[in-house]
Fold this protein.
Amino acid sequence: MSTFKNKHILITGGAGGIGFLMGKESLEHNAKKLIIWDIDEGNISKSLHSLSDYSDRVFTHKVDISDPDQVYQTAEQVLAEHHHIDILINNAGTVVGGDFSDHPRSDIERLIRINLLGTMHTTRSFLDTIISREQGHIVNIASAAGRMANPKMSVYTGSKWGVIGWSESLRLELESHPNINVTTVEPSYINTGLFKGVSPPLLTPLLDAEDIAKKIISAIQKDKIHLREPFMVKILPFLKGILPTRVFDFVAGRLFQVYHSMDTFKGRT
């Protein structure tokens, strides 16, 4: 069982959305240090103000995780100042919507650099220390989109498929280190503004940000391998496993309207 008490927690994209909420939960669970990485200076300032009661335990860095040089340089600084990270939560991410044929090269490359490569490089920058200490917990925030195709979010979906495959492979590589855990989180749409305008599929309502943040913290404490929310996402691997592709397309696309959920997408401005 992982505990937050007296631990060093680092959260990417930790100044807003569920990243901020998970950080606050960590502090309320008596984390010794919360280290926030975020690209948005405005959100960093807001988060510091909101967490003023814990000011002596909160440390922030402006980091663009799409830039590997920034990632490794800032990781060196963190390790020099704090010596180690106990729980790393790879939360930072972005989304672009629309048909793949309409995406400019810049959108494709930036999303993959943030969602997939940024997650990998951040983990790699701390992994040697985690292994040398023979303890730690790596949490990768993927998505239900990493388990099934969805029109008008192909690049995002591709990035999250990559995160899930990499996260699962990393978990297996670290099996020889019993005190190092990897948790992969696969939620459906979360009501944070990132997916503003989406039409949630049937029986898959927008997830409440505070609720999913608490569930992620609980999953970390219980050393869960996967956290999938809500219920329909939990049974998704089973349905995909037993249904022929065209039948699954009919169920997901026509009955549950998953394939039309991005038709009204606007995103965060």
Q: What stands out?
A: Residues 172 and 212 are 26 Å apart (CA to CA). The first strand starts at residue 8 and ends at 12. The chain has one domain: 8-260.
